[in-house]
Each structure stands twice: as structure tokens, then as C-alpha cells.
Amino acid sequence: xxxxxxxxxxxxxxxxxxxxxxxxxxxxxxxxxxxxxxxxxxxxxxxxxxxxxxxxxxxxxxxxxxxxxxxxxxxxxxxxxxxxxxxxxxxxxxxxxxxxxxxxxxxxxxxxxxxxxxxxxxxxxxxxxxxxxxxxxxxxxxxxxxxxxxxxxxxxxxxxxxxxxxxxxxxxxxxxxxxxxxxxxxxxxxxxxxxxxxxxxxxxxxxxxxxxxxxxxxxxxxxxxxxxxxxxxxxxxxxxxxxxxxxxxxxxxxxxxxxxxxxxxxxxxxxxxxxxxxxxxxxxxxxxxxxxxxxxxxxxxxxxxxxxxxxxxxxxxxxxxxxxxxxxxxxxxxxxxxxxxxxxxxxxxxxxxxxxxxxxxxxxxxxxxxxxxxxxxxxxxxxxxxxxxxxxxxxxxxxxxxxxxxxxxxxxxxxxxxxxxxxxxx
RNA sequence: GCGGUUGUGGCGAAGUGGUUAACGCACCGGAUUGUGGCUCCGGCAUUCGGGGGUUCAAGUCCCCUCAAUCGCCCCA
Length: 426
Known about the structure:
This protein is of the alpha+beta class. It has helices spanning 14-33, 47-53, 59-64, 83-92, 137-153, 172-183, 192-200, 211-216, 229-244, 289-292, 307-316, 339-352, 366-375, 386-391, 412-417; strands at residues 37-38, 44-46, 66-69, 75-78, 102-111, 123-132, 159-165, 250-251, 263-271, 279-285, 300-306, 330-335, 357-359, 380-385, 393-398, 403-408. It has 15 helices and 16 strands.
């Protein structure tokens, strides 16, 4: 082997893709029921999209992006998240000019340069949704309800929805000032990251995981306390709606989240069962993002869910029992000159009628072919030998009972399919 | 980016300086005439992640490197 796959990326082998298909099927279904349509944006964008969209001060932009210069000298970045590209596409194609709100979803790979560990890859996959053009609290509630519905449909339990409101440009300056006043005497004791945050984005000190910082920020003014009436009303309505729909949540006034574009509602879904990387999804409202990227004032909200972490949680909750084995309808075994061509012809005709059929590729012994047939768990095996061919018949063996019957070659397809006619082509 | 642990055939796993690197599973083949699942027999690592060093001698010791894994940071 010359090299393995690069660090932090993984192949998904048949055993896994089978599981992914199940999750993807749920995504397809739930998005249809909630009225979302799919958007597929490129895997890379002009770096600018993320620098301005996600925010220069975020960890993602500062140290986790995959940046490169193409042969034309353009500064490009592999997408670390799905919201900024979606907004870019919204603007480029003027989707905001149509009926609002615009409800989009995406599924695909994202790239972040970090040290790999359980639940953290450099290429990972997200399922995300975005709603543009409505500032209504109903949309906030719907987005969160949908996320929880999604997990529920996959059978996941013991998840926690953390909820907070981090205000808007009207109320945030007041909070920021109060927070800086509160922390001013202790700045020197904060961790180095938080010392920088103190000036640039003091709010993020609230959810710093450093123990000392947590102690120092005990009793600090929370965003909720400084919400303007608009944000407060909005937040209350969101909670009321979630309550009425029976969506349980935990208020967390220190939840801030690492992307700069969030306003008002911020939420995160965590699982206690997948190691240190406990967040399996999160999102929030971003009422200024579209403007920031050069579009018209358009409120928005969305979530992004990590599919690897979802699968990991499912695995830990025993929801991935790989019960489905290889299942074929028929195996055709051959023995002797001229039999393979007949078998091949029959196999193709049967496949065109919808049966899953296999035959041997290497001209192995009948015994070896039977062994293979057994592994495919086929209910029946068609055996075509030289003597049968001479008589114009084939043998059909029922594996479970070892019973065999002889069927004329020219009626075996009708015998197996119930009709000799292939289905109408599409 | 930082710290801990680990790296032997497709997988699991013995082997703690000294002849031809256990074993289990999987896979392939065979057990008198063209037939599966059980059993039996046989095959399957010139090589121990990669590179360098120490030694008469290294899978076993040292260094570097790559990767995996767990944690920190952050987040999905």
C-alpha cells in the first residue's frame, strides 16, 4: 500500500453506507413533510464567503478552514459549514425575490482542520436546514421541533435541547458593556483565549469551558437579562410554542455558540453518550447574515446536524444492529460447456424483470458455487448442467428443503416471475 | 495546535534480544462420479505501520516519522 487515506478522513464501506442510506431516507422524508427543498452548493467557495459569513473572530475561520489558492490565483476555502454558502447561493440566484419564506435543506460533506478524535473528522457530513424571510418565532420553534423530530424518528433518546437567546444589535451593546464592566477587574485571570475575547467578543467568555473562567464569570450578566423588548417577546413566544408542542428543552443562559452570525435564538442538541464531542447538532437565528453578505435585509434561521455523530449516537444506543444481510432472489450455478452463456442470458432477463440474480464469475466447481449461493442466502438456486441443457431443462433447487424440480428451459422465466414479459421500460 | 495510549496476515490476537513469527475467525481448495449449511484435511505474513540507529543477533531496545485512539481547545 502506497498510502492510506489522509488523516481525519474516512471511507464509508458498504456496511456503513447501508446505515447512511437509512438516515438519508429519513432526511428525505422529514424535509418533504416540513416543506423543505434541497439545495446543493459547491464544496468550496471564495474564502471571503466564510470570513465575512461565519466571522473573522471565530475559531472555525481562525484555525480550522481548509484554504487553498487555485491555479488562477483565487483564494478558496473548503466549506466548513453550510449556512454561508446557502446564503451566497440565495443572493446569487435572488431566491429572496420569490415567495417567502424560502425553506432549504442540504446534506453533504464539510471540512474543518482539527485534531481527529471520537466524533470529529476533518471531513464530516452535515444535514442542515435554513429558513429565509421570516422573523416569526413560529419558525424558530418549527426548526427546533423538526430537529428533535428527526432524532426521534431515528429512535434516538436521551438527547437534550439547550436553548438561549443572545439578543440582537439593539440589545447586545448593553449586555456587552455590562459584561465587560463585570469582568474588567478580573481580566488578567482569564485564560489567554478569553483575554482576547474580552475585547473582541466578551459574550463568548460565558461559554468558555475553562474552569477558572467559569468561576470568574459566575454571576456575570447574562444575555437574557439584557434582551430588548422585541427579543424578549420573541424568546417568550418561542418557549411558549415549544411548550405547546411538547418539545422539551433546557434553558442555558451561557450557551453562546461559536459562529458570529447568530442573533436571538441559539440552540444546541447534545448527547451524553458519544464521548467528549457531545454536540450532535445546533443552530440559531441569523437576522443580519444576509445583509452582511451583501443582500437585502432578510431574517433567517437554521440548524446543522453532524451525521457522523448522529450515527455514533445511534450505534451507542444499539440502533444499528446490522440485521440485513445480503439478500438475493436467485443464484444460477452452471456446470459444463455452453452452460455459462445460457445462464448469463437467463440472469440478464430475470434481472430486467426485477429479480436480484447472481452467478459465478470464475468457472468454479459446482460445489464452490453452491457454497457461494448459500452465503447469498438465496431461497433458490437454478442449476444448469450439460445434461440438462441437452434436454432443454434446468433444475431449480429450494435451499431450505433441498428439494429440486426440473423445469423446461423455455418456461423457467415465467415459472420464476409469473410472466414471460419484461416490465414496461420507464 | 497541545497531552496520554497504541500500531504483528482481511479481522481478532500470541510473541517482553537469539533457529523456519502461535492460535482463532474469515477467505480459497479438497474429502472417488455434477450440488450448500456440520465435520475433517490442506492453502493463505520472505515479515511484524514506515525510515534510521544500537547489537554477533530486533517484531522485541533507542530516535524520527506516519496513522489510529482518548482527552484539551473548539465544534458537527
